[in-house]
Specification:
Blueprint (H helix, E strand, L loop, with lengths): L6 E4 L2 E4 L9 E3 L3 H6 L2 H10 L9 E8 L6 E7 L6 E3 L10 E10 H4 L3 H11 L14 H17 L5 H4 L18 H7 L12 E10 L2 H7 L5 E8 L2 H18 L14 E3 L3 H35 L6 E7 L1 E10 L2 E10 L2 E2 L18 E4 L7 E6 L3 H5 L2 E2 L9 H7 L2 H10 L3 E3 L3 H6 L8 H10 L3 E14 L1
Parallel strand pairs: 3-4, 18-19
Antiparallel strand pairs: 1-2, 2-3, 4-5, 5-13, 6-10, 7-9, 7-11, 8-9, 8-19, 12-13, 14-17, 15-16, 16-19
Helix pairs in contact: 4-10, 5-10, 7-9, 9-10
The structure holds one DNA strand of 6 nucleotides.
Length: about 475
DNA sequence: ATGTGC
């Protein structure tokens, strides 16, 4: 990235004072090394976000930021509805409410080893994965609406898991304010048979070992010890969220000029939070949040079924479930004054610090679990929201390693079969319907997740708790 | 991300 115009005001923080149409500064949390590696497009896009009406404090980018549609992936921006603030479909992204759910298994890595092959095959058989994958569930229109309003709580009411699961899900598994009538029939039809499916791209289900502990107290509060086996599920709202994103990007691009909004980039299409189109988007997007949480809840149920056949002694409980593509109304202190703001997080995880009232009572003292997915071979991390996260970036942190190479470039560089063999040699079993998908997701196509996580920690966004080493990965 | 797209 070209660094002119940026001021390094801390070791892990860069600030660009407002120029031109920017209403607030742009801030990127990264070291000089990651900043240099970062795409120039991130600087351009985050500065564009800073021009949007009603933006508060600054437009932020996380250390894993990369070029996205309109907003960078790894972008965080908050808007005040009373100051003409906007909601942007591009600020949430196409994969609405994509997120990570982590599960305890009650197993130790020694117990996992002899079962790995069978578990990989059974999970791959049980959890549909890949482009256009469908499941055993088909939702009639009334059930679709109930799902869009009820989220993971709807799934539990239908027998997929238990109410105890919901305690550890963001919003207790049900996002209030969803408006199924604002979700098009086309979006609903696309989703009809996609509940309980992983999808494609960077989505996965992994069986992982807690390979290193960095923060004993937080790990203990999360119920994690070295050698424990956990499951991470990374997926979103499938075709429904994608269709909602597509339709509202189009509608917002059409209506922006009528609201007097000058867009620096058509992809930044947005609408006032209080406008009819803005309110319809929020209602539809909250339905997609419920869809994603219901999806991860059903996949949890399928994962339990797979473990029950291979390792009946396993007991799978939810450690935490949090999204990284959302726009949510939250209270934040701005200059010591509490304000209610709509926080966009696109490829950025909510990371509330200790004491936040929205956290489950047994985690409140330590802070919110923050799951960071790495690439297939490199491992993942469990972090905890830092006490300073609220004032640094509206209680947000990074969400993954971030791509360092385009999908196209990755396809030219690797063969899926060879990637699978190489990882198998290191004890990491991949199961995927698509060699092409595996090649696109080759570990070498991603940044070093350890560097990204270290910088989120050093920047005061989220502290490292544990490292997770992959053993089995079901990949879309 | 996606009933993948030039």
């Amino acid at each position: 990235m070209e660094l002119s115009g940026w001021v390094q005001d801390e070791a892990y923080r860069w600030r660009r004072p407002p120029t031109g149409a920017m209403r607030v500064p742009a801030v990127i949390y990264a070291s000089a090394a990651l900043m240099a590696e970062m795409d120039d497009k991130v600087a351009e896009q985050i500065a564009n976000v800073a021009t949007l009406p009603g933006i508060v404090e600054a437009a932020y980018a996380m250390p894993d930021a990369h070029w996205g549609y309109g907003f960078p992936i790894g972008g965080v921006a908050a808007f005040d509805p009373d100051l003409g603030g906007v909601v942007s479909a591009g600020g949430v992204g196409f994969d609405i409410s994509c997120g990570v759910r982590a599960l305890h298994t009650g197993l130790r890595v020694g117990e996992l080893r002899p079962l790995k092959e069978a578990l990989a095959d059974t999970l791959f058989g049980e959890v549909p994965a890949g482009v256009g994958s469908t499941g055993a569930i088909s939702l009639a229109p009334a059930e679709m609406d109930a799902m869009l309003e009820g989220g993971a709580a709807w799934a539990v009411a239908r027998g997929y898991g238990t109410s105890a699961d919901l305690v550890r899900v963001e919003e207790q598994g049900r996002m209030a304010g969803a408006l199924p009538d604002c979700v098009s029939d086309k979006a609903k039809n696309r989703q009809r048979r996609e509940m309980g499916t992983l999808g494609s791209g960077n989505h996965y289900l992994e069986v992982q070992e807690v390979s290193e502990i960095f923060d004993r107290a937080a790990a203990a509060a999360f119920g994690l010890a070295q050698g424990d086996v956990v499951v991470s599920i990374h997926c979103g709202s499938r075709g429904l969220g994608h269709q909602i994103g597509t339709e509202f990007l189009r509608d917002m691009a059409k209506s922006a000029a009528g609201f007097g909004i000058a867009l620096p980039d058509r992809e930044l299409a947005c609408a006032p939070l209080t406008s009819p189109v803005g309110e319809r988007y929020l209602g539809a997007m909250r339905g997609a949040i419920n869809c994603a949480m219901a999806n991860r809840q059903i996949i949890t149920h399928l994962t339990r079924a797979a473990f029950a056949r291979i390792a009946p002694e396993a007991e799978l409980s939810v450690l935490y479930d949090v999204s990284h593509n959302t726009c949510k109304l939250e209270e934040h202190q701005v200059g010591g004054v509490p304000r209610r703001l709509f926080v966009h997080r696109k490829g950025a995880t909510r990371a509330f610090g200790p004491g936040h009232p929205d956290l489950p009572s047994d985690l409140r003292a330590v802070g919110q679990p923050v799951m960071i997915g790495g690439s297939m071979g490199t491992g993942s991390y469990m972090l905890v929201g830092a006490a300073t996260a609220g004032e640094r970036a509206f209680g947000s942190a990074c969400h993954g390693a971030g791509r360092s190479m385009s999908r196209h470039q990755a396809l030219r560089t690797w063969r899926g079969r060879a990637v699978i063999d190489e990882l198998a040699g290191r004890g990491i079993l991949i199961r995927s319907p698509s060699y092409r998908g595996v090649a696109e997701e080759a570990p070498g196509a991603y940044k070093d997740v350890t560097a990204v996580v270290d910088e989120a920690d050093q920047a005061g966004l989220a502290r490292k708790v544990a490292r997770l080493k992959p053993h089995v990965c079901v990949k879309g």
